[in-house]
Amino acid sequence: MLSDTLNATSQYEQDAFVEMFRKDASWIDATGLDWDRSWQHLEKRLAEGALGDMNFHGFLGPEHLTRLYNWIDRIPYPNFLNGPPFERLVALARAADLAVMDRLGLDPELHGIDAVSVYNAQDFRFQTPYQVPWRQRVRTFLDFGAGHGRQANLWLQTAPQLTTFIAVDAFPATYLTQRLYYQALGLTLNDHMDMTQQPFVIHEDPKVVNHLPSWRLDLVPDGSVDMVCAVQVLRELSRGMLRFALRQFHRILRTDGALYIRDHIGFHNVNMVDMDRVLAASGFVAEWQPALIDGKDVHGVPRIWRKPNLNAIIGGKV
Ligand SMILES: C[S@@+](CC[C@H](N)C(=O)[O-])C[C@H]1O[C@@H](n2cnc3c(N)ncnc32)[C@H](O)[C@@H]1O
Fold this sequence. Notes:
By secondary structure, the chain is an alpha/beta fold. The protein has a single domain, classed as Rossmann fold, CATH 3.40.50. Helix content is about 45%, strand content about 15%. It has eleven helices and eight strands. Helix 7 (about 150-160) links the parallel strand 1 (about 140-145) and strand 2. Helix 5 crosses helix 6.
Protein backbone atom coordinates (compact mmCIF):
# COMPACT_ATOMS: atom_id res chain seq x y z
CA MET A 1 0.00 0.00 0.00
CA LEU A 2 1.13 3.52 -0.81
CA SER A 3 0.63 4.64 2.81
CA ASP A 4 2.83 1.79 4.14
CA THR A 5 5.56 2.66 1.65
CA LEU A 6 5.35 6.33 2.59
CA ASN A 7 5.41 5.56 6.32
CA ALA A 8 8.47 3.38 5.88
CA THR A 9 10.05 6.16 3.79
CA SER A 10 9.26 8.71 6.51
CA GLN A 11 11.07 6.61 9.10
CA TYR A 12 14.00 6.07 6.75
CA GLU A 13 14.20 9.82 6.07
CA GLN A 14 14.07 10.65 9.78
CA ASP A 15 16.87 8.22 10.50
CA ALA A 16 18.91 9.74 7.68
CA PHE A 17 18.41 13.23 9.16
CA VAL A 18 19.56 12.06 12.58
CA GLU A 19 22.57 10.43 10.94
CA MET A 20 23.44 13.69 9.15
CA PHE A 21 23.18 15.55 12.47
CA ARG A 22 25.52 13.01 14.04
CA LYS A 23 28.03 13.15 11.18
CA ASP A 24 28.02 16.96 11.22
CA ALA A 25 28.79 17.06 14.96
CA SER A 26 32.11 18.90 14.60
CA TRP A 27 30.53 21.52 12.30
CA ILE A 28 27.66 21.91 14.71
CA ASP A 29 30.11 22.41 17.57
CA ALA A 30 32.00 24.99 15.51
CA THR A 31 28.88 27.17 15.23
CA GLY A 32 28.93 27.44 19.04
CA LEU A 33 25.14 27.16 19.02
CA ASP A 34 22.94 24.68 20.76
CA TRP A 35 20.75 23.46 17.87
CA ASP A 36 18.99 20.92 20.08
CA ARG A 37 17.96 23.61 22.50
CA SER A 38 16.63 25.79 19.74
CA TRP A 39 14.38 22.88 18.75
CA GLN A 40 13.28 22.55 22.37
CA HIS A 41 12.28 26.20 22.30
CA LEU A 42 9.80 25.44 19.54
CA GLU A 43 8.63 22.28 21.27
CA LYS A 44 7.79 24.47 24.25
CA ARG A 45 5.76 26.82 22.07
CA LEU A 46 4.01 23.80 20.61
CA ALA A 47 3.16 22.51 24.07
CA GLU A 48 1.68 25.94 24.89
CA GLY A 49 -0.59 25.47 21.87
CA ALA A 50 0.98 28.44 20.08
CA LEU A 51 1.66 26.57 16.85
CA GLY A 52 -1.52 24.59 16.28
CA ASP A 53 -0.98 21.02 15.07
CA MET A 54 2.54 21.72 13.81
CA ASN A 55 5.20 19.15 14.50
CA PHE A 56 8.87 19.93 13.96
CA HIS A 57 10.43 16.60 14.82
CA GLY A 58 8.37 13.59 13.84
CA PHE A 59 8.11 13.66 10.05
CA LEU A 60 4.70 12.42 8.91
CA GLY A 61 5.41 12.08 5.20
CA PRO A 62 2.90 13.77 2.80
CA GLU A 63 0.63 14.56 5.79
CA HIS A 64 3.31 17.03 6.86
CA LEU A 65 3.02 18.92 3.61
CA THR A 66 -0.71 19.34 4.13
CA ARG A 67 -0.14 20.61 7.68
CA LEU A 68 2.28 23.21 6.38
CA TYR A 69 -0.14 24.21 3.59
CA ASN A 70 -2.93 24.55 6.11
CA TRP A 71 -0.76 26.55 8.47
CA ILE A 72 -0.74 29.32 5.89
CA ASP A 73 -4.39 28.74 5.02
CA ARG A 74 -5.64 29.33 8.55
CA ILE A 75 -4.69 33.02 8.51
CA PRO A 76 -6.72 35.42 6.38
CA TYR A 77 -4.49 36.87 3.70
CA PRO A 78 -5.37 40.32 2.51
CA ASN A 79 -4.22 40.99 -1.02
CA PHE A 80 -4.21 44.32 -2.84
CA LEU A 81 -2.25 42.96 -5.82
CA ASN A 82 -4.35 42.11 -8.84
CA GLY A 83 -4.43 42.23 -12.62
CA PRO A 84 -3.60 39.62 -15.26
CA PRO A 85 0.19 39.31 -14.65
CA PHE A 86 -0.40 38.69 -10.95
CA GLU A 87 -3.27 36.29 -11.62
CA ARG A 88 -1.00 34.38 -14.02
CA LEU A 89 1.54 33.91 -11.22
CA VAL A 90 -1.17 32.66 -8.85
CA ALA A 91 -2.43 30.23 -11.50
CA LEU A 92 1.09 28.92 -12.18
CA ALA A 93 1.78 28.36 -8.50
CA ARG A 94 -1.59 26.68 -8.02
CA ALA A 95 -1.18 24.35 -11.00
CA ALA A 96 2.21 23.21 -9.74
CA ASP A 97 0.81 22.55 -6.25
CA LEU A 98 -2.16 20.63 -7.66
CA ALA A 99 0.30 18.43 -9.58
CA VAL A 100 2.31 17.91 -6.36
CA MET A 101 -0.82 16.84 -4.48
CA ASP A 102 -1.83 14.53 -7.28
CA ARG A 103 1.60 12.87 -7.28
CA LEU A 104 1.48 12.40 -3.51
CA GLY A 105 -2.08 11.11 -3.48
CA LEU A 106 -3.42 14.06 -1.47
CA ASP A 107 -6.90 15.52 -1.90
CA PRO A 108 -6.66 19.21 -2.87
CA GLU A 109 -10.24 19.81 -1.67
CA LEU A 110 -9.18 19.05 1.90
CA HIS A 111 -6.14 21.27 1.88
CA GLY A 112 -6.81 24.75 0.58
CA ILE A 113 -3.88 25.69 -1.56
CA ASP A 114 -5.39 28.93 -2.84
CA ALA A 115 -3.96 31.02 0.00
CA VAL A 116 -0.56 29.40 -0.49
CA SER A 117 -0.64 30.25 -4.21
CA VAL A 118 -1.47 33.89 -3.46
CA TYR A 119 1.25 34.08 -0.79
CA ASN A 120 3.76 32.61 -3.26
CA ALA A 121 2.76 35.03 -6.00
CA GLN A 122 2.95 37.99 -3.60
CA ASP A 123 6.45 37.02 -2.52
CA PHE A 124 7.57 36.68 -6.13
CA ARG A 125 6.23 40.15 -6.98
CA PHE A 126 7.71 41.71 -3.84
CA GLN A 127 11.09 40.06 -4.44
CA THR A 128 11.29 41.62 -7.90
CA PRO A 129 9.25 44.81 -7.45
CA TYR A 130 11.19 47.01 -9.91
CA GLN A 131 13.79 46.71 -12.64
CA VAL A 132 17.37 46.53 -11.47
CA PRO A 133 20.74 46.78 -13.24
CA TRP A 134 22.08 43.50 -14.60
CA ARG A 135 24.52 43.01 -11.71
CA GLN A 136 21.56 42.90 -9.28
CA ARG A 137 19.51 40.31 -11.22
CA VAL A 138 18.84 37.19 -9.21
CA ARG A 139 20.67 34.22 -10.69
CA THR A 140 21.36 32.47 -7.37
CA PHE A 141 18.53 32.42 -4.84
CA LEU A 142 18.78 31.05 -1.29
CA ASP A 143 15.65 30.33 0.75
CA PHE A 144 16.50 30.37 4.46
CA GLY A 145 13.96 28.62 6.72
CA ALA A 146 12.16 27.21 3.69
CA GLY A 147 8.94 25.93 5.34
CA HIS A 148 7.46 23.34 3.00
CA GLY A 149 9.71 24.62 0.20
CA ARG A 150 7.20 26.93 -1.47
CA GLN A 151 9.72 29.47 -2.87
CA ALA A 152 10.91 26.82 -5.35
CA ASN A 153 7.47 26.76 -6.94
CA LEU A 154 7.58 30.10 -8.79
CA TRP A 155 11.33 30.73 -8.81
CA LEU A 156 12.05 27.54 -10.68
CA GLN A 157 9.10 28.01 -13.05
CA THR A 158 9.19 31.68 -13.91
CA ALA A 159 12.64 33.22 -13.46
CA PRO A 160 14.49 32.56 -16.73
CA GLN A 161 17.77 34.04 -15.52
CA LEU A 162 17.88 31.80 -12.42
CA THR A 163 20.76 29.32 -12.49
CA THR A 164 21.01 28.15 -8.90
CA PHE A 165 18.46 27.51 -6.15
CA ILE A 166 19.51 26.74 -2.59
CA ALA A 167 17.24 25.84 0.34
CA VAL A 168 18.29 25.81 3.97
CA ASP A 169 16.54 24.66 7.14
CA ALA A 170 17.40 23.20 10.52
CA PHE A 171 14.35 21.29 11.73
CA PRO A 172 13.90 17.63 10.83
CA ALA A 173 10.24 17.76 9.84
CA THR A 174 10.45 20.88 7.68
CA TYR A 175 13.72 19.73 6.14
CA LEU A 176 12.20 16.38 5.20
CA THR A 177 8.97 17.95 3.95
CA GLN A 178 11.07 20.17 1.68
CA ARG A 179 12.75 17.08 0.22
CA LEU A 180 9.36 15.55 -0.49
CA TYR A 181 7.94 18.74 -2.02
CA TYR A 182 10.92 19.49 -4.28
CA GLN A 183 10.87 15.98 -5.70
CA ALA A 184 7.10 16.07 -6.14
CA LEU A 185 7.59 19.34 -8.08
CA GLY A 186 9.69 17.28 -10.50
CA LEU A 187 13.01 18.81 -9.43
CA THR A 188 16.26 17.00 -8.77
CA LEU A 189 17.63 17.09 -5.24
CA ASN A 190 21.27 17.76 -4.53
CA ASP A 191 21.13 17.25 -0.77
CA HIS A 192 23.90 17.35 1.80
CA MET A 193 21.89 14.68 3.64
CA ASP A 194 22.42 12.19 0.80
CA MET A 195 26.19 12.60 0.63
CA THR A 196 27.89 9.48 1.84
CA GLN A 197 31.33 9.61 0.22
CA GLN A 198 31.72 12.69 -1.91
CA PRO A 199 31.51 16.20 -0.44
CA PHE A 200 28.47 18.38 -1.12
CA VAL A 201 29.01 20.96 -3.85
CA ILE A 202 26.43 23.48 -5.08
CA HIS A 203 25.09 22.63 -8.56
CA GLU A 204 24.37 25.40 -11.04
CA ASP A 205 21.30 24.01 -12.75
CA PRO A 206 17.78 25.50 -12.78
CA LYS A 207 16.23 22.04 -12.39
CA VAL A 208 18.18 21.24 -9.22
CA VAL A 209 17.45 22.19 -5.62
CA ASN A 210 20.61 22.41 -3.53
CA HIS A 211 19.57 21.51 -0.01
CA LEU A 212 21.53 21.77 3.21
CA PRO A 213 21.10 22.33 6.95
CA SER A 214 21.87 25.80 8.30
CA TRP A 215 24.79 24.54 10.37
CA ARG A 216 26.50 23.77 7.04
CA LEU A 217 26.00 27.21 5.46
CA ASP A 218 29.80 27.20 5.18
CA LEU A 219 29.23 25.01 2.07
CA VAL A 220 27.83 28.06 0.26
CA PRO A 221 30.82 29.96 -1.18
CA ASP A 222 31.57 33.59 -0.25
CA GLY A 223 29.90 36.18 -2.48
CA SER A 224 27.97 33.60 -4.50
CA VAL A 225 24.31 34.43 -3.77
CA ASP A 226 22.20 37.22 -5.33
CA MET A 227 19.18 37.00 -3.03
CA VAL A 228 18.65 35.52 0.41
CA CYS A 229 14.97 35.06 1.26
CA ALA A 230 13.86 35.01 4.91
CA VAL A 231 10.08 34.91 5.24
CA GLN A 232 8.61 34.67 8.73
CA VAL A 233 11.79 33.32 10.24
CA LEU A 234 14.32 35.90 11.53
CA ARG A 235 12.18 37.06 14.45
CA GLU A 236 11.73 33.48 15.62
CA LEU A 237 15.42 32.65 15.83
CA SER A 238 17.25 32.72 19.14
CA ARG A 239 19.55 35.76 19.35
CA GLY A 240 22.66 33.62 18.87
CA MET A 241 21.10 31.94 15.85
CA LEU A 242 20.10 35.33 14.41
CA ARG A 243 23.69 36.60 14.79
CA PHE A 244 24.97 33.44 13.08
CA ALA A 245 22.46 33.73 10.23
CA LEU A 246 23.12 37.42 9.52
CA ARG A 247 26.90 36.90 9.48
CA GLN A 248 26.44 34.04 7.04
CA PHE A 249 24.05 36.05 4.84
CA HIS A 250 26.58 38.88 4.62
CA ARG A 251 29.35 36.46 3.74
CA ILE A 252 27.49 34.50 1.04
CA LEU A 253 25.81 37.48 -0.65
CA ARG A 254 27.61 39.20 -3.50
CA THR A 255 28.22 42.89 -3.19
CA ASP A 256 24.89 44.31 -4.46
CA GLY A 257 23.07 41.14 -3.37
CA ALA A 258 19.64 41.46 -1.73
CA LEU A 259 18.17 40.21 1.51
CA TYR A 260 14.39 39.83 1.13
CA ILE A 261 12.55 39.77 4.44
CA ARG A 262 8.83 39.44 5.03
CA ASP A 263 7.53 39.31 8.55
CA HIS A 264 5.54 41.31 11.05
CA ILE A 265 6.48 44.73 12.23
CA GLY A 266 5.43 45.73 15.73
CA PHE A 267 4.09 42.32 16.78
CA HIS A 268 5.12 38.67 16.81
CA ASN A 269 8.65 39.74 17.70
CA VAL A 270 9.66 36.51 19.44
CA ASN A 271 13.35 37.33 19.96
CA MET A 272 12.53 40.99 20.82
CA VAL A 273 15.33 42.26 18.62
CA ASP A 274 15.32 45.70 17.00
CA MET A 275 15.71 44.14 13.56
CA ASP A 276 16.39 47.32 11.58
CA ARG A 277 19.27 48.30 13.87
CA VAL A 278 20.68 44.79 13.82
CA LEU A 279 20.48 44.60 10.01
CA ALA A 280 22.22 47.96 9.65
CA ALA A 281 24.90 46.92 12.15
CA SER A 282 25.36 43.69 10.18
CA GLY A 283 26.32 45.64 7.06
CA PHE A 284 23.03 45.84 5.17
CA VAL A 285 21.40 48.96 3.74
CA ALA A 286 17.62 49.38 3.68
CA GLU A 287 16.43 49.72 0.09
CA TRP A 288 12.69 49.14 -0.15
CA GLN A 289 9.83 49.00 2.29
CA PRO A 290 6.37 49.78 0.93
CA ALA A 291 4.05 51.65 3.27
CA LEU A 292 1.68 48.71 3.62
CA ILE A 293 -0.40 47.99 6.68
CA ASP A 294 0.19 44.51 8.03
CA GLY A 295 -3.06 42.56 8.33
CA LYS A 296 -4.96 45.13 6.26
CA ASP A 297 -3.10 45.34 2.94
CA VAL A 298 -0.89 42.31 3.28
CA HIS A 299 0.18 39.61 5.74
CA GLY A 300 3.75 40.39 6.84
CA VAL A 301 5.53 43.45 5.48
CA PRO A 302 8.00 42.80 2.63
CA ARG A 303 11.34 44.60 2.64
CA ILE A 304 14.54 44.51 0.62
CA TRP A 305 17.87 45.19 2.27
CA ARG A 306 21.07 45.16 0.24
CA LYS A 307 24.72 44.35 0.80
CA PRO A 308 25.91 47.74 -0.37
CA ASN A 309 28.06 48.48 -3.33
CA LEU A 310 30.17 51.38 -2.03
CA ASN A 311 30.23 52.93 -5.51
CA ALA A 312 26.47 53.39 -5.27
CA ILE A 313 26.89 55.16 -1.94
CA ILE A 314 29.92 57.25 -2.83
CA GLY A 315 28.29 58.30 -6.13
CA GLY A 316 29.81 60.08 -9.13
CA LYS A 317 31.39 58.40 -12.13
CA VAL A 318 33.45 55.40 -11.15
C1 LIG B 1 7.22 30.16 10.17
S1 LIG B 1 8.11 29.06 9.16
C2 LIG B 1 8.26 30.00 7.65
C3 LIG B 1 8.49 29.10 6.49
C4 LIG B 1 8.73 29.75 5.13
N1 LIG B 1 9.75 30.76 5.14
C5 LIG B 1 7.45 30.28 4.55
O1 LIG B 1 7.33 31.49 4.45
O2 LIG B 1 6.59 29.48 4.17
C6 LIG B 1 9.78 29.14 9.84
C7 LIG B 1 10.77 28.25 9.11
O3 LIG B 1 12.08 28.51 9.64
C8 LIG B 1 12.72 27.27 9.90
N2 LIG B 1 13.78 27.49 10.88
C9 LIG B 1 13.68 27.68 12.20
N3 LIG B 1 14.91 27.83 12.77
C10 LIG B 1 15.80 27.75 11.75
C11 LIG B 1 17.22 27.83 11.67
N4 LIG B 1 17.97 28.00 12.75
N5 LIG B 1 17.81 27.72 10.45
C12 LIG B 1 17.05 27.54 9.35
N6 LIG B 1 15.71 27.44 9.37
C13 LIG B 1 15.09 27.55 10.55
C14 LIG B 1 11.58 26.36 10.31
O4 LIG B 1 11.89 24.99 10.22
C15 LIG B 1 10.53 26.77 9.27
O5 LIG B 1 10.77 26.13 8.03
